């Protein structure tokens, strides 16, 4: 008998958690386009930030995802601490949507719903249709898992030893309330899913193993336990990200303290809204929602003070220790559509740095600047671009190893290819600068004709880069195709300059460093053209 109960509860919990994961992932994919607009919604207005937290958490059906994402945004300097506090407060409200999903009385339809959705994925060819089916399958598994847990726990009502066990943390005294809240916090911290513990709480209450006050106390504790995910995510993050995670914990602990202190009055207030005798599941969901709404209302006026307090308590980072060049962070990987959108912005910033290098070399070739004045600056820009490539690659390879839909997978691969090619272009531009520096240091001067040839080649390659960078910004295939003619023209220009130089070498005696240095510069411009053409091939789909 006990084994049968154990198997049913374990299987039900496993299916419930798997269903939550599938529904969450499906919702995230369906919400992808909306999530891309998150960065545009970032604002210092705390009410807008709270609304964004509610919206995002309701979309992805996971406060852990939205809170960790927020920590990632703070870690990447996309959000200030005060903005993050607003989003976290909103996430606390948004996560209560899960409880209301569980209120639906469709447990017996969970298995056929999951089965029909699973079968349909075998026939759907559209990515969107398969994503919707995955979310529906997850929802079905949630209800089927709850049904299994409920059936499994039903026999425990007749076993005195189990009844006495559950009565050990009954919320009939103040310390009993604290004990029940502690159990809820511990269970949620272990499972790392407040939705799962909420489902267990509702199941225990429906089966009569715990009473309504105990269920409410457990729910209060679950709000504390869920903060463990953000705390773990912030361990290696910046000081501001740690402050945001600590704020999440402080807000929820403070909320539980006031709620447990006036627990009897709080229960009376809840019973005026919804009588648990009429609908116990809805009453527990109401308790969860009302607690978070009241807690948010209480903390809104104090978010600024809390941020200032945490800035004093949590030591700021060393300027060198957490120096980053991009606004990307591994913690953002739970929302890949946001990573894809932000990655494009970072690569366009790389393009701005490369344009700056082109301009510095242009000043040298045009005789307006000495190479001595520019090579150090170019080298520093190239080092920065190396960091861009590393940070972009780290985050984007991380999301590629996850479950990306086809569109995001394609965009991520295109972004990574462009990032690599841009960094390589900067390498060759630095080589050109160093070659020119070496020639100058050895007293080697280019003839006016050779300088004019390089100047023209430089201008054409820079013009090609501008067009490709613009086409990448717009993701315009026609613009990419239009650059092919320029690539071919630069190729012919290089061949002509190379042939002229080799003919000149055979007819005249010139210093070896002049001959090899000039050819190195020509070859480096050709290689830059080749790497830019690689980007064209990716976006123009040239086989």
UniProtKB/TrEMBL annotation:
<feature type="domain" description="PhoU">
    <location>
        <begin position="455"/>
        <end position="537"/>
    </location>
</feature>
<feature type="transmembrane region" description="Helical">
    <location>
        <begin position="84"/>
        <end position="104"/>
    </location>
</feature>
<feature type="transmembrane region" description="Helical">
    <location>
        <begin position="45"/>
        <end position="64"/>
    </location>
</feature>
<keyword id="KW-0472">Membrane</keyword>
<dbReference type="GO" id="GO:0044341">
    <property type="term" value="P:sodium-dependent phosphate transport"/>
</dbReference>
<feature type="transmembrane region" description="Helical">
    <location>
        <begin position="287"/>
        <end position="307"/>
    </location>
</feature>
<keyword id="KW-0812">Transmembrane</keyword>
<protein>
    <submittedName>
        <fullName>Na/Pi-cotransporter II-like protein</fullName>
    </submittedName>
</protein>
<dbReference type="InterPro" id="IPR038078">
    <property type="entry name" value="PhoU-like_sf"/>
</dbReference>
<keyword id="KW-1133">Transmembrane helix</keyword>
<feature type="transmembrane region" description="Helical">
    <location>
        <begin position="245"/>
        <end position="267"/>
    </location>
</feature>
<dbReference type="InterPro" id="IPR026022">
    <property type="entry name" value="PhoU_dom"/>
</dbReference>
<dbReference type="InterPro" id="IPR003841">
    <property type="entry name" value="Na/Pi_transpt"/>
</dbReference>
<feature type="transmembrane region" description="Helical">
    <location>
        <begin position="6"/>
        <end position="24"/>
    </location>
</feature>
<feature type="transmembrane region" description="Helical">
    <location>
        <begin position="185"/>
        <end position="206"/>
    </location>
</feature>
<dbReference type="Pfam" id="PF02690">
    <property type="entry name" value="Na_Pi_cotrans"/>
</dbReference>
<dbReference type="GO" id="GO:0005886">
    <property type="term" value="C:plasma membrane"/>
</dbReference>
<keyword id="KW-1003">Cell membrane</keyword>
<dbReference type="GO" id="GO:0005436">
    <property type="term" value="F:sodium:phosphate symporter activity"/>
</dbReference>
<dbReference type="Pfam" id="PF01895">
    <property type="entry name" value="PhoU"/>
</dbReference>
<dbReference type="InterPro" id="IPR004633">
    <property type="entry name" value="NaPi_cotrn-rel/YqeW-like"/>
</dbReference>
<feature type="transmembrane region" description="Helical">
    <location>
        <begin position="212"/>
        <end position="233"/>
    </location>
</feature>
């Amino acid at each position: 008998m006990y084994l049968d109960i154990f198997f049913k509860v374990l299987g039900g919990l496993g299916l419930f958690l798997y269903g939550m994961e599938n529904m969450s992932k499906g919702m995230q994919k369906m919400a992808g386009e909306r999530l891309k607009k998150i960065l545009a919604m970032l604002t210092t207005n705390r009410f807008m930030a709270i609304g964004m937290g509610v919206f995002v958490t309701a979309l992805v059906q996971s406060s852990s995802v939205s809170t960790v994402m927020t920590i990632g945004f703070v870690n990447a300097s996309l959000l200030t601490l005060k903005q993050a506090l607003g989003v976290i407060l909103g996430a606390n409200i948004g996560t209560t949507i899960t409880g209301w999903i569980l209120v639906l009385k469709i447990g017996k339809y969970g298995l056929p719903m999951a089965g029909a959705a699973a079968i349909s994925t075998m026939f759907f060819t559209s990515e969107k249709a398969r994503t919707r089916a995955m979310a529906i399958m997850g929802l079905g598994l949630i209800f089927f898992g709850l049904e299994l847990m409920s059936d499994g726990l039903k026999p425990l009502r007749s076993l005195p030893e189990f009844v006495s066990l559950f009565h050990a943390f009954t919320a009939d005294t103040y310390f009993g309330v604290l004990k029940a809240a502690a159990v809820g916090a511990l269970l949620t911290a272990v499972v790392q899913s407040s939705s799962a513990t909420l489902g267990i709480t509702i199941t225990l209450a429906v089966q009569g193993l715990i009473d309504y006050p105990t269920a409410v106390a457990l729910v209060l504790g679950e709000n504390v336990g869920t903060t463990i995910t953000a705390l773990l995510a912030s361990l290696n993050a910046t000081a501001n990200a740690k402050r945001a995670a600590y704020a999440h914990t402080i807000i929820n602990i403070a909320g539980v303290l006031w709620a447990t202190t006036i627990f009897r009055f709080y229960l009376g207030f809840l019973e005026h809204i919804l009588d648990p005798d009429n609908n116990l599941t809805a009453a527990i969901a109401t308790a969860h929602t009302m607690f978070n709404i009241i807690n948010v209302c209480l903390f809104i006026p104090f978010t600024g003070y809390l941020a200032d307090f945490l800035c004093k308590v949590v030591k700021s980072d060393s300027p060198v220790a957490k120096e980053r060049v991009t606004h990307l962070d591994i913690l953002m990987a739970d929302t890949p559509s946001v990573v894809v959108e932000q990655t494009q912005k970072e690569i366009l910033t790389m393009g701005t740095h490369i344009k700056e290098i082109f301009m510095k070399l242009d000043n040298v070739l045009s005789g307006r600047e000495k190479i001595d004045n520019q090579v150090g600056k170019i080298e520093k820009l190239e080092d920065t671009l190396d960091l861009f490539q590393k940070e972009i690659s780290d985050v984007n390879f991380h999301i590629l190893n996850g479950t990306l839909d086809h569109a995001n997978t394609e965009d991520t691969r295109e972004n990574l290819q462009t990032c690599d090619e841009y960094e390589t272009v900067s390498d060759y531009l630095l080589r050109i600068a160093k070659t020119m520096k070496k020639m100058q240091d050895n007293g080697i001067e280019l003839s006016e004709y050779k300088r004019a040839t390089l100047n023209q080649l430089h201008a054409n390659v820079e013009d090609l880069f501008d067009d490709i960078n613009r086409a990448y910004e717009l993701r315009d295939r026609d613009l990419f195709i239009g650059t092919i003619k320029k690539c071919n023209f630069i190729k012919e220009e290089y061949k002509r300059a190379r042939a002229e130089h080799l003919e000149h070498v055979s007819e005249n005696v010139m210093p070896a460093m002049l001959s090899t240095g000039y050819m190195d510069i020509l070859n480096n411009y050709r290689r830059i053209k080749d790497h830019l053409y690689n980007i064209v091939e990716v976006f123009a789909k040239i086989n």
